[in-house]
Amino acid sequence: MPISIPLGAPVWADANTPDLAGDLVFYTKLFGWTTFDSGEEFGHYTEFCLGTSASNARVVAGIAPNQSDQRGKPSAWGLSFHVEDCVRTATAAEKLGATAVTHPMRVGDDLVWANMKDPDGAAFGLYEPLRADMGFTAFGEPGAAAWFEYAYDGVPAVAMQFYAELLDWEVTVPAWEDPRNRRPYVSLHAREAGLEFGGAAVIGEDDPDASPRWTVCFEVAAVDRLAARAPALGGEVVGPAHDLPGLRVATLSSPTGARFGILERTG
């Protein structure tokens, strides 16, 4: 059954991979997801779902094998934001300093999508659903995407000004942040519904990748248990489990190197 995703909020997350079969084994064993392959016509794009049959499946994310001309493309997770008009929003994004990697294209009778890079170089998508059942049909619960985190080597609020203007976000500094911090963490809300869906933070000093980026985070029942399981499945713990206000979090990567977060609600 569809869920309501407000305009401006993340509506979809998916990964690319050079090894579809291997990554399917990793994710299904890690999260307990089931999979539905769209077939050869759609390049074997595969949906990850909660539920065991087509009748009760709720979609949480997708994964696509690299195309024949991009076999060596690094594996990565990406996210797309809900927009009313993909063409109009992509044009507005370019005027605000973004770059169109893939201009708006229609995907069957399902959606219109564009692949963009923000003014600081982080990838994101614009997603205009053409049917009510497109996008997440499970969100914000164990096994589903629940949070989206932006990492930036600068003042997070400055980087978020682009998205706030383009997608009508409210960007706020949470009450727990140190008022002396000149580069404070910021929380991100879709203004239409007041939905808090993510945040933006300074890239850690020990992070070898200093490029701005979005991380898709999936909610789980026990962060430490999944973090311990990932290496046995061929993945890696790239950010050890640690506590944040109300959360326990870790960053993992798939066997093909796609980073993603896991979070457990603790309060």
Please explain how this structure is put together.
The protein starts with 9 loop residues before the first strand and ends with a strand. It has an eight-stranded mixed sheet with strand order 2-3-4-1-5-8-7-6. The chain folds into two domains: 10-129, 2,3-Dihydroxybiphenyl 1,2-Dioxygenase, domain 1; 145-265, 2,3-Dihydroxybiphenyl 1,2-Dioxygenase, domain 1. The protein is built from four helices and 16 strands. The protein is an alpha+beta fold. InterPro entries: Anthracycline_SecMetBiosynth (IPR052164), Glyas_Bleomycin-R_OHBP_Dase (IPR029068), Glyas_Fos-R_dOase_dom (IPR004360), Glyoxalase_6 (IPR041581), VOC_core (IPR037523). Residues 9-129, 144-265 form the VOC domain. This is VOC family protein. Pfam families: Glyoxalase (PF00903), Glyoxalase_6 (PF18029).
Short description:
With 267 residues, the chain is α+β, with helices and mostly antiparallel strands. The protein is built from four helices and 16 strands. The longest helix is centred in the first third of the chain and has 12 residues, at 20-31.
Q: What CATH architecture of the largest domain would you give?
A: Roll
CATH topology of the largest domain: 2,3-Dihydroxybiphenyl 1,2-Dioxygenase, domain 1
Quick one: overall form? globular
CATH class group of the largest domain: Alpha Beta
End-to-end Cα distance, whole Å, is: 28 Å
Spans with pLDDT under 50 lasting ≥5 residues? none
What's the CATH superfamily of the largest domain, by name?
2,3-Dihydroxybiphenyl 1,2-Dioxygenase, domain 1
Oligomer: single chain
Largest sheet: 8 strands, mixed
The number of distinct β-strands equals 16
Protein name: VOC family protein
InterPro entries: Anthracycline_SecMetBiosynth, Glyas_Bleomycin-R_OHBP_Dase, Glyas_Fos-R_dOase_dom, Glyoxalase_6, VOC_core
Organism: Glycomyces buryatensis
Pfam families: Glyoxalase, Glyoxalase_6
